[in-house]
């Protein structure tokens, strides 16, 4: 597993491995990059292409942005509130093979106004339900400003997240990408659940 992680980092000319929970609290969860094998499966799902703009919440050192931009040729925006980890994303952007298709914002997710070009959003449990609800409101505002298909991808979602998402009037369950076979053992959370905004 780790060999695959290092090979991808090397190929993309970035450094994103390792976990960091030095600034985690009850609202903002530790930095832990999505495994590359999961991002490969997402990239191969056909749900993201070069015409899409992906917004990665809690981007950390930018792995999701660099990897998806490389694999699907999409544009991507990473939002990160921790200035120390954000510095890692910016440093990676200087070297990354897909750096020109990526951009990063140092701000809290709930404060970030979602650009009307964004039509894909990615979450790997970056924050609490309280923050998630505020972020969803921001996404809805952007949707009303420019009605379009927006897909939200939730990797390894908690029961709490799923319960919250199922009660959102503006969200419709769209699809599920199974990732359980990529890892040893059985884990029902090993999946990417996809919702669409506005039911388009």
UniProtKB/TrEMBL annotation:
The organism's place on the tree of life at top rank: Bacteria
Record-linked Gene3D superfamilies: Vaccinia Virus protein VP39 (3.40.50.150)
Enzyme class: transferase
SUPFAM superfamilies: S-adenosyl-L-methionine-dependent methyltransferases
Record-linked InterPro entries: Methyltransf_25, SAM-dependent_MTases_sf
GO BP annotation list: methylation
Alphabetical keyword list: Methyltransferase, Transferase
Domain Methyltransferase: 54-140
EC number: 2.1.-.-
Pfam families found in the cross-reference section: Methyltransf_25
Protein name stated in the entry: Class I SAM-dependent methyltransferase
Organism: Blautia acetigignens
């Amino acid at each position: 597993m780790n060999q695959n992680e290092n090979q991808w980092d090397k190929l993309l000319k970035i450094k994103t491995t390792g976990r960091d929970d030095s600034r985690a609290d009850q609202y903002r969860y530790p930095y832990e990059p999505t495994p590359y094998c999961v991002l490969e499966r997402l990239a191969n799902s056909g749900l993201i292409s070069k015409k899409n703009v992906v917004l990665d919440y809690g981007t950390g050192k930018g792995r999701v942005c660099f990897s998806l931009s490389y694999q699907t040729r999409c544009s991507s925006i990473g939002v990160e509130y921790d200035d120390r980890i954000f510095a890692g994303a910016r440093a990676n952007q200087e070297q990354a093979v897909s750096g020109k298709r990526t951009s990063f914002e140092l701000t809290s997710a709930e404060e970030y106004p979602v650009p009307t070009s964004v039509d894909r959003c990615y979450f790997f449990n970056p924050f609490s339900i309280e923050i998630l609800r505020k972020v969803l409101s921001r996404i809805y505002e952007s949707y009303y400003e420019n009605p379009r298909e927006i897909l939200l991808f939730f990797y390894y979602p908690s029961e709490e997240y799923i319960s919250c998402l199922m009660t959102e009037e503006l969200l419709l369950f769209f699809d599920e990408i199974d990732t359980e076979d990529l890892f040893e053992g059985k884990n029902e959370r090993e999946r990417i659940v996809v919702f669409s905004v506005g039911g388009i």
